[in-house]
Specification:
Helices cover 63% and strands 13% of the residues. The chain folds into two domains: 102 residues, Rossmann fold; 60 residues, Arc Repressor Mutant, subunit A (Orthogonal Bundle), CATH 1.10.10. By secondary structure, it is α/β, with parallel strands linked by helices. Helix 2 runs parallel beside helix 3, helix 5 packs across helix 6 and helix 5 crosses helix 7. Strand 1, helix 1 and strand 2 form a beta-alpha-beta unit.
């Protein structure tokens, strides 16, 4: 049997919530909360910290995609969108939201377990891509700081680009300080360097 998940369900139709709760429990999952609208779903996600959310696309106060966006901004989790509609506009709305699967209501119990597996796999891929993007952005920011510090050293000490880089590299090694930290210190000391 697959890992048991803590699931949040949000659908403005109580019967759908009950049917889905029953299907999830038969699969060995635990429904931690059910919401009748998107705003309530976001609040319950904050309180219960589910492993997965299943949100109806059209709900009062806040749609499923809007709730998904807010949940993802606060604490990303795998999200499945449910809809009684499969028209192009509805599907497009779901595509633009941070959701990882789309199921048409009524949900066939045989479709639920594979949908959850696909959702979780896509979520992990998305998380990995996000981590890599964040790391690249950090590296780029660090590179910019090092370049600015190098430029400052070139201007204030009359060093060539190579000499300035070598100075940063050697000082970083001598002081056992990451080059980006050294660059930050040099940039903070910029007013003093320029007075020399």
């Amino acid at each position: 049997m697959a890992e048991s998940l803590r699931v949040l369900i949000a659908d403005d139709e109580a019967l759908h919530n009950l049917a889905l709760t029953s299907q999830l429990e038969q699969l060995g999952h635990h429904v931690v909360a059910t919401a009748a609208n998107g705003k309530e779903a976001v609040e319950l996600a904050r309180e219960t910290k589910p492993d997965l959310a299943i949100l109806d696309i059209r709900m009062p106060m806040m749609t499923g995609p809007e709730a998904a966006a807010q949940m993802t901004a606060e604490r990303p989790i795998p999200i499945i969108i449910l809809s009684a509609y499969s028209d192009e506009r509805t599907v497009d709305e779901a595509i633009r939201a941070p959701v990882f699967h789309y199921l048409v209501k009524p949900v066939d119990p045989d479709d639920l377990a594979p949908a959850i597996a696909v959702t979780r796999a896509r979520f992990e891929e998305w998380l990995d891509a996000k981590r890599q993007r964040d790391l690249l952005e950090l590296k780029l920011e660090e590179r910019k700081l090092i370049e600015r510090a190098k430029g400052l050293l070139m201007d204030s000490r009359g060093l060539s680009e190579r000499e300035a880089y070598r100075f940063l590299q050697k000082t970083s090694q001598d002081k056992n300080t990451p080059m980006v930290e050294l660059a930050r210190k040099i940039l903070l000391a910029a007013p003093l360097l320029q007075k020399e």
